[in-house]
Amino acid sequence: MTSSQFLLAVILVMAQLGAMCGWTSPYLARLSRPDAELHLDPEEASWVASLINVGRFLGAFLGSGCTHLWGSKHALLHTLVPMALGWALILCAKDALMLYLARVSLGLGMGMAFCCFPLYIGEIAVPRIRGAIVTVAFCGSPFGNVVASVIGAYTSMIVSSCVFLVPCLVAIALFWWLPDSPHHLVKRGDLEGARLAIDWYRNGVGVDEELKAVQAFVQSGDGASSAFKNFLGQLSQPYIRKAICMSMMLFMYMQLSGLNSVLFYMENILREGQVTIIEPALTVILVSVVGAITALASINLMDKCGRRVLIMTSGCIITLSMLILGASFVLLDHDYDPAYIQSFVVFSLFLFMIGFVAGLMPVPSAVLSELFPANVKCAAACLACLTGALFAFGASKAYQPLVSLIGEGYVFFIHALLMSSVIPFVLLYMPETKGKSLQEIQDILSKKS
C-alpha cells in the first residue's frame, strides 16, 4: 500500500455517508406509496428520515472516546462496524421497526465518522494542501449520493444494501493496514513509530522537522489528556471557548441550510412542486451528479480562496436557492400555472447542491481539524458533532409537521433567513486558517482572544 491510498479509505467512508443520505429520498418516496410491500405512513417516514441523526448524536460520543483511546485512524476503522450493521438490518427489514434500528445504526457510524475524520486529516495532512485533502475526501459523499440515487430509483432495498456493504468491507481492509497518526503515536511515547508514520504519510519529505512540530503541538497541551474533565478546565481560556463556538456554529449552519429537507425529501419536493418536464426520480439523480461534479471542480478552492470566502459564497448561493424554491411554492399555492414554475423548482435544487457541496459541506470539517490543541480536540470534535446531530435531527423531524402547518414555501424561506446570517458570522468571528500549521492557528486564536 502506498501513502496516497489513505485517501481511498477515507473517500470510501465518506461515500457511505453520502449513500446513507441519498438512500432516503428514493426509498421514502417508494415506501410511502399505498401499494408498497413495506408501507410507511407519513409519521413513520419522518422517523426513518430523522432517526439517523439520533444515532449520529450517540456516535459523536463514541467517536470521541475511540479517538482518545485508540487514535483517529483506529476510530475511523471502528465507524465501519455500525455502518455495515445498518445495511445488514435494511437487507433483512420486514417492518418499520427494523428500518428504525437500521437508520440508528447507520447514524451511529455517521456520527463517529464526522467526529474522527477531521481529526485524522488534520493530523496527517500537509498544511498547504489540508483543505484540498478534506475536499477530495468529501468527494466521496456526493458520489455515494449519486450511487444511492441511481440504485434507489431502479432496484430493491435488498440489492442496494448488498451494494453498500461491499465498500464497507473494502474500507475495513484498507484501514487495517494504515499506520496510526503521528500525533497519537507521540502521545503514547512511541517516537520511532511516529517517525515511521510521518515517513509513510509524507513520502519521506521533511520527516525530522514534522516530528518536532508534532511533539511541540502535543506538548502544547501541558501534558494534559483529552479527558472531558480536563477539557472543562480548558474552557477558562478565551481562545478555546471561541474555537468551540466557531466550530459548533459552522456545524449548525450546515444542518440548517436546508440540507436535510432537500436530501431526504427531494423526490417528494419535486412531486409537490408539480414538476413534469423531467421525471422526479431522474432529477434526484441529476442533482446528485451535479453535486459530484462540483466536488471535483472545487478540490483546490479551499486552499486558493480560503475558508472565509468559500463559506460566505456558499451561504449566498444557498440563500438564493432557498428563496427561489420558497417563492416557487408560494406562487403554486396562489394558483400560478405550474408549467411556468416547475423550471424554477428544478433550478433551485441544482443551485442548492452546487452551493452546498462547494463550501458548506467541506469547510466545517476542515476548520474543525485545525482549531484545537491536542489536549482538547477530541472533546471539542465531540461537541461540534453533537451540535450537528442535534440540529440535523430537529431539521429533518420538523420538516413534515412544518410543511403541514405553514406550507413548503415558508419552510424554505426560514432556511434562507437562517443562511443569510452566515456572512456577518464569518466576517466578525472566523479567522482565516488557509495554509497555516496547527500550531500557527493556535497562536492566532490565542492572540485574538
TrEMBL record:
The keyword Transmembrane helix applies. PROSITE patterns: MFS. Its main location: membrane. Pfam families: Sugar_tr. It is a multi-pass membrane protein. It is found in: Cell membrane. One of its GO terms (cellular component) is plasma membrane. Keywords: Cell membrane, Glycoprotein, Membrane, Signal, Sugar transport, Transmembrane, Transmembrane helix, Transport. It comes from the Eukaryota. Residues 1-434 form the Major facilitator superfamily (MFS) profile domain. Residues 1-22 form the signal peptide. One of its GO terms (molecular function) is transmembrane transporter activity. The chain crosses the membrane at residues 75-91, 97-120, 132-151, 157-178, 243-265, 277-297, 309-332, 344-363, 375-395, 410-430. This is Major facilitator superfamily (MFS) profile domain-containing protein. The lineage of its organism: Eukaryota, Metazoa, Ecdysozoa, Arthropoda, Hexapoda.
